[in-house]
Amino acid sequence: MSDEDDIVLSELDDEELVAQMFDDLYDGLKDEIMEATEILLERGWQPYEVLTKALVGGMTIVGNDFRDGILFVPEVLLAANAMKGGMSILKPLLAETGAPRMGKMVIGTVKGDIHDIGKNLVAMMMEGAGFEIVDLGINNPVENYLEALEREQADILGMSALLTTTMPYMKVVIDTMKEKGIRDDYIVLVGGAPLNEEFGRAIGADAYCRDAAVAVETAKDFVARRHNQMAAG
């Protein structure tokens, strides 16, 4: 692919550049994504436009191909890492311009569980979809979740477990939220290999998400519904 080396990003027009960014995100090319992000900003694009049209647009393709089994976890992690490169440039600018928020999610693996690949993938894909993510890491007791939700004024709580022995801890968190009267303030999404929809319903989560692509779609749906209710109310 010798012609690939000859592409000069700055010589592409906007449309070609965004198409090239889709390809570069797909291939996990972080430096190229950062360079292209800078070029679009220099050309007068709003940070929010770059985020939604170029980065989120590209990650949507990655997410769909991941869902359909065309891409696999390592490739998605590379793409998400490239996206992070672009985000590192946009984040401070987005904060200044007060861009519309998709929503904010607190995510972490539950107490007793130290698995994080699935959680990291969800966090990256959610960020790729324009959500703000607060990642609490692994082995989180209920206090960690509740403190973070309040501190961050989050919209969504995401909990992950990979062991059948740690799954029931999700119910502990949700029950504690109910006791404190705050359960309905948040959208609660759960995921992890041993879970299923029935389990999600039984513990009182809003939804069970079988993979990162589903998590993104589900979060978008719930946030949109919530906005509509607030507008109606």
TrEMBL record:
Domain B12-binding N-terminal residues, every copy: 8-102
Entry keywords, A to Z: Cobalt, Metal-binding, Methyltransferase, Transferase
PROSITE patterns in UniProt: B12_BINDING, B12_BINDING_NTER
Residue ranges the record marks as coiled coil: none
Keyword rRNA-binding found: no
Domain of life: Bacteria
One Pfam family linked to the record: B12-binding
SMART domains listed in its UniProt record: B12-binding_2
Keyword field contains Protein transport: no
Domain B12-binding: 102-233
GO molecular function: cobalamin binding; metal ion binding; methionine synthase activity
GO cellular component: cytosol
A GO biological process held by the record: tetrahydrofolate metabolic process
UniProt family annotation: Belongs to the methylamine corrinoid protein family.
Name of this chain's protein: 5-methyltetrahydrofolate--homocysteine methyltransferase
Lineage of source species: Bacteria, Pseudomonadati, Pseudomonadota, Alphaproteobacteria, Rhodobacterales
